């Protein structure tokens, strides 16, 4: 199927910005399960200075905010063709990042007592094989952490979200990653888009997790929707956690406080 998206991220500053730099990961990846048919990016209030692929094979753009700008907007449009259901199996590990690194905790995925207890409980259930174990983990997280907006943010760790008991797709992915690593399975974060039959306008992009399983390679698990990704999903960036795969990472000097507004349309 063909999925079309139009994504605008805008920052408005209280005062003119002397200097600002943004690293953008918004271009989807080409792989065996999806093909980028078209892609464009327009920057208002800034200039794209460089483009490159990072260690996770994410396409990155470096945008310099114009000196004295009061706002900057990044407008991306594109169309991606996805294949029929592949049951979440992405396949072999690729890129420059070694597989062992996805077993290591990060600040956002370091397991505490709550995540450890969840992982141990799922392990004790006696699932036959790693595939069943990861499905059991995904369902256990969905049961334990209700999907609710407004209780967490981009800085919330897996352990904090677990203790709160509420969160969004980013939190579900971080908890899954933290617990899977405790169970000895490499896991990573995925940011992207999700085409939903009942709506076009969305508040933000989507996030899910992938686990590396012997014999299959990387396999996706969308905890928030209790499914493995299919043709409705568009993969954009991957990494050890949200910090590695965030759509926009901004650094500014001056400008006072800023307000970020996101507009996203995803349709067929």
For this entry, give a set of tags.
Immunoglobulin-like; C8orf32 fold; 5 helices; globular; alpha+beta; 268 residues
Mean pLDDT: 93
| DSSP summary, beta strand count | 16
CATH architecture of the largest domain: Roll
General shape:
globular
How many structural domains in the coordinates?
A: 2
- In the predicted model, the low-confidence regions spanning at least 5 consecutive residues are none
CATH topology of the largest domain: C8orf32 fold
Number of helical regions: 5
Oligomer: single chain
Query: Beta-strand percentage?
Result: 35-45%
Radius of gyration: 19 Å
Order of secondary-structure elements: EEEEEEEHHEHEHEEEEEHEE
- Strand order, main sheet: write it out: 3-6-1-16-11
CATH class of the largest domain: Alpha Beta
> What is the helix content?
10-25%
Main sheet specs? 5 strands, antiparallel
Q: What structural category arises from helix and sheet content?
A: alpha+beta
Protein name: Transglutaminase family protein
InterPro entries: Bac_transglu_N, Papain-like_cys_pep_sf, Transglutaminase-like
Organism: Sphingobium fluviale
Domain Transglutaminase-like: 161-225
């Amino acid at each position: 199927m063909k999925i079309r998206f139009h994504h605008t991220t805008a920052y408005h500053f209280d005062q003119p910005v002397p200097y600002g730099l943004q690293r953008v990961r918004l271009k989807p990846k080409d792989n065996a399960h999806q093909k980028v048919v078209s892609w464009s990016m327009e920057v208002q209030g800034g200039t794209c200075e460089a483009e490159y692929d990072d260690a996770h094979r994410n396409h990155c753009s470096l945008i310099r905010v114009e000196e004295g700008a009061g706002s900057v907007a990044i407008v991306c449009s594109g169309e991606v063709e996805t294949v029929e259901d592949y049951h979440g199996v992405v396949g072999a590990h690729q890129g420059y990042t070694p597989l062992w690194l996805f077993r290591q905790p990060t600040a956002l995925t370091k397991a505490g007592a709550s995540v450890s207890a969840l992982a141990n409980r799922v392990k004790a259930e006696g699932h036959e094989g790693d595939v069943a174990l990861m499905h059991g983990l995904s369902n256990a997280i969905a049961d334990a952490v209700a999907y609710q907006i407004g209780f967490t943010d981009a800085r919330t760790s897996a352990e904090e979200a677990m203790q709160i008991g509420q969160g969004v797709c980013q939190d579900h992915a971080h908890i899954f990653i933290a617990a899977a690593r405790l169970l000895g399975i490499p896991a990573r974060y995925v940011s992207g888009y999700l085409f939903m039959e009942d709506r076009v306008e969305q508040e933000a992009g989507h996030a899910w997790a992938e686990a590396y399983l012997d014999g299959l390679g990387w396999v996706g698990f969308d905890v928030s929707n209790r499914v493995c990704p299919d043709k409705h999903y568009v993969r954009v960036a991957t990494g050890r956690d949200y910090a590695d795969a965030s759509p926009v990472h901004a650094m500014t000097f001056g400008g006072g406080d800023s307000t970020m507004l996101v507009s996203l349309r995803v349709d067929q």
